[in-house]
Amino acid sequence: MAAPAFEPGRQSDLLVKLNRLLERCLRNSKCIDTESLCVVAGEKVWQIRVDLHLLNHDGNIIDAASIAAIVALCHFRRPDVSVQGDEVTLYTLEERDPVPLSIHHMPICVSFAFFQQGTYLLVDPNEREERVMDGLLVIAMNKHREICTIQSSCGIMLLKDQVLRCSKIAGVKVAEITELIQKALENDQKVRKEGGKFGFAESIANQRITAFRMEKAPIDTSDVEEKAEEIISEAEPPSEVVSKPVLWTPGTAQIGEGIENSWGDLEDSEKEDEDEGGSDEAIILDSIKMDTGEVSNIGSQDAPIVLSDSEEEEMIILEPDKNRKKIRTQTISATQVKAPSKKPVKKRKKKRAAN
Amino acid sequence: MAGLELLSDQGYRVDGRRAGELRKIQARMGVFAQADGSAYIEQGNTKALAVVYGPHEIRGSRARALPDRALVNCQYSSATFSTGERKRRPHGDRKSCEMGLQLRQTFEAAVLTQLHPRSQIDIYVQVLQADGGTYAACVNAATLAVLDAGIPMRDFVCACSAGFVDGTALADLSHVEEAAGGPQLALALLPSSGQIALLEMDARLHEDHLEQVLEAAAQAARDVHTLLDRVVRQHVQEASVLLGD
């Protein structure tokens, strides 16, 4: 759903990578105090599961996913539990307020895209930049400037000082993002207490349509007029195109002639035999070939129009006809179309009479 | 693992090594007859086997063929008896997939794939005993196997793991040290140029210590390179003696 390139159901490489990265970032860094999730030692424990759904992919899903995951964990409240001896009492949400998870720190991923063997470095690449990048370096840090995860991917060759520089930049970014998250969490808590509206629908800004918005690319339009005139003066005049739709029967219409069938080149000898065989079907194609400028002419000839009534002529065999070539070359001049077209028709007519 | 001292006051680790010391490395090339290249490496107790087939024609879908370079295909498998408790899924689980991807990424960068367009190079790595530093052992074994197969590479790819305890960076972690939960860094390096092919780190490490740990890992990788270089030269010498040169 997130992007046209993602197929449903396949566990692709990207999925594995993303999954493992987030697992390492959240689990191995011990951001959640897992001991506090224990209810009865050796018997009962809370299991926490984070499900991530990617809705729209505009680059750098790793960062977005890590922020979403950690904020969700911070925001989550679990039901309260009390243990008295052997008795475990689980309070429902109405009885007692739910309890937040104890989170030690918030690891946030920052991605760096490398271009041209490490010459250029971009933080937070968007989708287009991701498509052409050489490689990606992901650094997950928390606001105490502890690195939780580093992962280099796509086989770029890094140098040690590049990695260190990236970690410094990541430190700055993470501090900003953590502040943003804190504010958002406080805001949400405030709104919930005051009884205002909260939730996913509210978080989507109301007055903005983001789907069809495209950034304006700056283009220099100062000399457009001169360029346009130049192009027009140098160009050849366009060829005459007369497009008149021909209605054969209700539901069958035709505009144009279509591309010439090149099978005719290969089967010259066979063609002639079949023509003499007098297949009426060939007429249909002849007539179709000769149309465009000649609506009135076609109307006056009975043969081509009759084909729709006759039962014999229901099947159309696409047989290359030698006459077709002549017709083809003369389509441009409308007047000459008449002469050759009449010939084949008359030929067929005679044959039918004979039959 | 509480109470286990990873680094004693005198600077000795659990297995008696110093902070920057590597475990004993033994390696052999050309262990299998069928494969184009194969190698076996033991880093301490970690044992890894690597096998290379190629370059050969692309198997499976022809559409995957790249017109200007070779496709590198890596598969990582960890034997069920490799860890203390029997492993349920040797292939196919996410961790193996990830390792395979990382190996592929490493070798795609190091192998001169432009010399073999439209073909495929397969690298299979099997871990027989996992005692810490499995990624590093796999990369080292695969490097030797690729060299044994005669596939041209930019440089050796040497890998080593590193950790950080009590203000000191440790090189080449064993399983005990990894399980203790401290930060672990896995680094794959091309020694001559000092370029990093793959860098991976887990668990919390303060930014200020990053350089120290990186340096320790890089130095360890260079030490591994010296060793691997010696192994390759010895192998070539043996082979030339057998051929009667």
From TrEMBL, chain A:
<dbReference type="GO" id="GO:0000176">
    <property type="term" value="C:nuclear exosome (RNase complex)"/>
</dbReference>
<feature type="compositionally biased region" description="Acidic residues">
    <location>
        <begin position="265"/>
        <end position="279"/>
    </location>
</feature>
<dbReference type="InterPro" id="IPR020568">
    <property type="entry name" value="Ribosomal_Su5_D2-typ_SF"/>
</dbReference>
<dbReference type="GO" id="GO:0034476">
    <property type="term" value="P:U5 snRNA 3'-end processing"/>
</dbReference>
<dbReference type="GO" id="GO:0000177">
    <property type="term" value="C:cytoplasmic exosome (RNase complex)"/>
</dbReference>
<feature type="domain" description="Exoribonuclease phosphorolytic">
    <location>
        <begin position="105"/>
        <end position="170"/>
    </location>
</feature>
<keyword id="KW-0539">Nucleus</keyword>
<protein>
    <recommendedName>
        <fullName>Exosome complex component RRP45</fullName>
    </recommendedName>
</protein>
<dbReference type="GO" id="GO:0000467">
    <property type="term" value="P:exonucleolytic trimming to generate mature 3'-end of 5.8S rRNA from tricistronic rRNA transcript (SSU-rRNA, 5.8S rRNA, LSU-rRNA)"/>
</dbReference>
<dbReference type="GO" id="GO:0005730">
    <property type="term" value="C:nucleolus"/>
</dbReference>
<dbReference type="InterPro" id="IPR015847">
    <property type="entry name" value="ExoRNase_PH_dom2"/>
</dbReference>
<dbReference type="GO" id="GO:0034473">
    <property type="term" value="P:U1 snRNA 3'-end processing"/>
</dbReference>
<comment type="similarity">
    <text>Belongs to the RNase PH family.</text>
</comment>
<keyword id="KW-0698">rRNA processing</keyword>
<comment type="subunit">
    <text>Component of the RNA exosome core complex (Exo-9), composed of EXOSC1, EXOSC2, EXOSC3, EXOSC4, EXOSC5, EXOSC6, EXOSC7, EXOSC8 and EXOSC9; within the complex interacts with EXOSC3, EXOSC4, EXOSC5 and DIS3. The catalytically inactive RNA exosome core complex (Exo-9) associates with the catalytic subunit EXOSC10/RRP6. Exo-9 may associate with DIS3 to form the nucleolar exosome complex, or DIS3L to form the cytoplasmic exosome complex.</text>
</comment>
<dbReference type="InterPro" id="IPR033100">
    <property type="entry name" value="Rrp45"/>
</dbReference>
<dbReference type="GO" id="GO:0071028">
    <property type="term" value="P:nuclear mRNA surveillance"/>
</dbReference>
<dbReference type="InterPro" id="IPR001247">
    <property type="entry name" value="ExoRNase_PH_dom1"/>
</dbReference>
<keyword id="KW-0694">RNA-binding</keyword>
<dbReference type="GO" id="GO:0071035">
    <property type="term" value="P:nuclear polyadenylation-dependent rRNA catabolic process"/>
</dbReference>
<feature type="compositionally biased region" description="Basic residues">
    <location>
        <begin position="340"/>
        <end position="355"/>
    </location>
</feature>
<dbReference type="GO" id="GO:0034475">
    <property type="term" value="P:U4 snRNA 3'-end processing"/>
</dbReference>
UniProtKB/TrEMBL annotation, chain B:
<keyword id="KW-0698">rRNA processing</keyword>
<keyword id="KW-0007">Acetylation</keyword>
<dbReference type="InterPro" id="IPR015847">
    <property type="entry name" value="ExoRNase_PH_dom2"/>
</dbReference>
<dbReference type="GO" id="GO:0000176">
    <property type="term" value="C:nuclear exosome (RNase complex)"/>
</dbReference>
<dbReference type="GO" id="GO:0000791">
    <property type="term" value="C:euchromatin"/>
</dbReference>
<dbReference type="InterPro" id="IPR027408">
    <property type="entry name" value="PNPase/RNase_PH_dom_sf"/>
</dbReference>
<dbReference type="InterPro" id="IPR036345">
    <property type="entry name" value="ExoRNase_PH_dom2_sf"/>
</dbReference>
<dbReference type="GO" id="GO:0005829">
    <property type="term" value="C:cytosol"/>
</dbReference>
<dbReference type="GO" id="GO:0035925">
    <property type="term" value="F:mRNA 3'-UTR AU-rich region binding"/>
</dbReference>
<dbReference type="GO" id="GO:0071044">
    <property type="term" value="P:histone mRNA catabolic process"/>
</dbReference>
<keyword id="KW-0963">Cytoplasm</keyword>
<dbReference type="GO" id="GO:0000177">
    <property type="term" value="C:cytoplasmic exosome (RNase complex)"/>
</dbReference>
<dbReference type="GO" id="GO:0071051">
    <property type="term" value="P:poly(A)-dependent snoRNA 3'-end processing"/>
</dbReference>
<dbReference type="GO" id="GO:0051607">
    <property type="term" value="P:defense response to virus"/>
</dbReference>
<dbReference type="Pfam" id="PF01138">
    <property type="entry name" value="RNase_PH"/>
</dbReference>
<dbReference type="GO" id="GO:0005654">
    <property type="term" value="C:nucleoplasm"/>
</dbReference>
<keyword id="KW-0694">RNA-binding</keyword>
<keyword id="KW-0539">Nucleus</keyword>
<dbReference type="GO" id="GO:0016075">
    <property type="term" value="P:rRNA catabolic process"/>
</dbReference>
<dbReference type="Pfam" id="PF03725">
    <property type="entry name" value="RNase_PH_C"/>
</dbReference>
<comment type="subunit">
    <text>Component of the RNA exosome core complex (Exo-9), composed of EXOSC1, EXOSC2, EXOSC3, EXOSC4, EXOSC5, EXOSC6, EXOSC7, EXOSC8 and EXOSC9; within the complex interacts with EXOSC2, EXOSC7 and EXOSC9. The catalytically inactive RNA exosome core complex (Exo-9) associates with the catalytic subunit EXOSC10/RRP6. Exo-9 may associate with DIS3 to form the nucleolar exosome complex, or DIS3L to form the cytoplasmic exosome complex.</text>
</comment>
<feature type="domain" description="Exoribonuclease phosphorolytic">
    <location>
        <begin position="21"/>
        <end position="152"/>
    </location>
</feature>
